[in-house]
Amino acid sequence: MLPLLLLAGVEAEPIIVTGRGLPPGETAGAASVSIDRERIRQSASGRLEDVLRDVAGVQSFRRSDSRSSHATNQSITLRGLGGNASARALLLLDGVPQGDPFGGWISFPAYATDRIGQVRVTRGGGSGYYGPGALAGTVELESATPSESKPFVGSVAYGSRDSLDVRGSALLTGGSSALTMSGAFARGDGFVPITSSTRGPVDRAAPYKQASGAARYVQQLGQTEAQLNVSGFYDQRDRGVPFTENRGKGIDTSLRLVGKGGTRWSVLGYAQFRNFASQFSSINAARTTSTETLDQYSVPSRGFGFRGEIAPVSGPFDLRVGTDGRFVRGDTKELYQFVAGAPTRRRDAGGRSSTVGAFAVATLTHEPASVSASGRLDRWAISDGFFFQQTLAGATLTNTDFPDRHGWQGSGRLAGEARVAPPLKLRAAAYRGWRLPTLNELYRPFRAGADATAPNPDLRPETMWGGEVGTDLDLPAGWRAALTGYVARLHGAIANVTLGRGPGTFPIVGFVAAGGAYRQRQNLDAIRSRGLEADLSGRLAGLDARLSYAFVDARVDASGPAAVLDGLRPAQTPKHQLSATLGWTGPSGWSVSGTGRVLSAQFDDDLNVRRLHPALTLDSYAALPLGRHLAVELRGENLFNRTVETARGADGSIERALPRTLWLGLRLR
Q1: Might you report a single GO cellular component term (predicted)?
Q2: Which of 53, 174, 244, 648 is spaced 20 to 30 A from 615 at the CA atom?
Q3: Exposure of 195 by Cβ count < 10 A (0-12 exposed, 13-18 middle, 19+ buried)?
């Protein structure tokens, strides 16, 4: 066994392990933005979803974060290709897809930002290299390398509404190995999600409690590096009225071998085990009572996957070939049709799906130009789908097995870039991508207030064609600017389509009260989007500056039952997004930064009736050193206490995101 040395006050041996995979496989023509470790550390909330908002155009389905939003609304999309809560961008951590195996949502409390070394956001889809799911783009998270980590770091912060945030990590190294262990815990009494002017007696604060832990072992074996990851999380939230608690937990593990010799190669295998539970309630018009309507007491799921690739050629011609696969299974177990506060029926619905594909990426670089082409072919399958309902007395109401389905889908990307002058680079790309419906979309009904949405086991895969042109400009004094224009068309976009109004009883979901809407997930004809993205970064009079802006003009093409949506904007899709950060770091470790974000108006529903007002927020961060290893941290979120609307209910209630939150903490460095 190789010795492990705790580096506390002891001169370390040089760390030769990296903990990283092969360099990115597609770079030519990419509209990419990177967020470094220092910027990640200075996030006012310390949460990954807020770090990602530094890149305009990256958005979750709701404006709220993982302390108050329902977990199933936490996804990632870009370029206005939203419209429902399913992720249309692919999130990876050390090469492993992070979407929930059942629902595709992202469990953001699982990612303590202290563990992350770098974030790379690539806008634009059709990645032959990464495959299914990368419709709107790819978000790559890389764990902090041993050289980026310290022997021990920890922090504790106390915030508004009796909030607590505690984190710590330790690094142990030998000459050719490194072990990192970390943990995080957060809790808070929460705020009342409904605005003061629209809330009622039933509304109360929504507390949260979240924890995560991870261990990462990296071992150098000659020219091969082995990377073993094990992580877990627990997430408990409340939605601010009785019978609306939701909980999630999971354990993930992966093993990656990376060959760094003359012929580079990588082999990855992973397993994910998740479980989710959620209660739903119906609230009367006066918001005086909350009645339980659905108890999804268990949504177990698991996912397994592999990836292998080889890069036999380097230098001006880079070639990657490989294969990957992902296999998921899950079901939802529910109690429903409550009478006098007790359930009378139960149902179980779910299935399994898989994708297996092969890919090739070729890049030729001949200064001052570079061109790359990638392609892949995937075999997809949806199988063992079922829907079962019975009374608690034992009488079977529904027992349906859905037909197995399968097919082939192709992805591809052709891109090029050229430096036409020393400071100026032009780039262009065209691509095709696709996404398989999640088990959640296929089989799980859900409720949001008085509204109810039914699944659809006949959903088809989404496919997207798109293209972009852009320019990168190196300006004087280290400033850099990027501008990208794009068009995209998402065929068969899956959306929640309104088919009826309450009061009434509807298939699968049952009774919908007056004012509520009955919806079903359906494939639209398309979502077409076009837009412009601009990024600027550099230093100004000792200040680090970063600005990101996205303009999105997205519209729905629809016919048949969804014809009423034709020409409307996809739900939860703002036309303008802006993020701007100014920061300063002094010679003795002082640091101050402020981040302003602007979101234009957007609609909460597919019919574009429930309009959410524009939002402006300002966050801040300051670190004041108290000696060499200790610093005081001051953090502020939404300093102006602006009301950020996230949803509008059928009863006129307005849900909001986080109000002003102040933090005071200590960090051991």
Answers
A1: cell outer membrane
A2: 244
A3: middle
Check: CB of residue 331 under 8 Å from CB of residue 350.
Answer: yes
Can you tell me the mean pLDDT for 558-582?
93
Angle among Cα 25, 30, 31 to the nearest 5 degrees reads: 140
DSSP one-letter code for 73 = G
3-state secondary structure 101-128: CCCCCCCHHHCCHHHEEEEEEEECCCCC
Beta strand 208-221 with 224-237: parallel, antiparallel or unpaired? antiparallel
Maximum distance among all Cα pairs of the chain, rounded to whole angstroms: 77
Confidence of residue 501 (pLDDT cuts 50, 70, 90): confident
Cβ contact 100:87 at 8 Å: no
CA distances from 168 to 165, 182, 212, 288, 664 (A): 10, 6, 11, 43, 17
Range 87-96 burial, b when 16+ CB lie within 10 A, else e: bbbbbbbbbb
Give CA–CA dist 566/557, Å, rounded. Answer: 5
- 387-422 pLDDT, tens digit per residue, is 999 999 999 999 999 999 999 999 999 999 999 998
| Tokens 């974030």 belong to residue | 119
Q: Which of 20, 28, 22 is CA-nearest to residue 316?
A: 28
What element of type H or E holds 40?
Answer: helix 37-41
Residue keyed to tokens 């309630």: 281
Residue 626's closest CA among 665, 662, 592, 663?
A: 665
Name the phi and psi angles at 477, rounded to 5. 65, 30
CA dist 79 and 587 (Å) reads 39
* Cβ neighbourhood burial of 341 (10 Å; 0-12, 13-18, 19+): exposed
Q: Mean pLDDT across the stretch 428-457? A: 90
Type of residue at 581: T
**Dihedral angle over CA of 18, 21, 26, 28, nearest 10:** 10
Sequence-ordered strand ranges (E) for 402-525: 405-421, 424-435, 446-448, 451-454, 462-474, 480-491, 494-501, 504-506, 510-512, 517-523
Q: Which contacts (CB < 8 Å, 24+ apart) does range 635-640 have?
A: 635/44, 635/45, 635/46, 635/157, 635/159, 635/662, 635/663, 635/665, 636/44, 636/660, 636/661, 636/662, 636/663, 637/44, 637/45, 637/661, 637/662, 637/663, 640/616
Distance CA(208)–CA(38), nearest Å, equals 27
Give Cβ neighbours of residue 613 (< 8 Å, ≥ 6 apart): 601, 643, 645
Question: Which residue matches tokens 């220092």?
Answer: 38
Give the contacts of 53 (CB within 8 A, at least 6 positions apart): 59, 579, 597
pTM exceeds 0.90 = yes
Which tokens sit at 611? 């309009």
The number of residues in the chain equals: 669
User: Is the preceding omega at residue 242 within 30 degrees of 0, hence cis?
Assistant: no
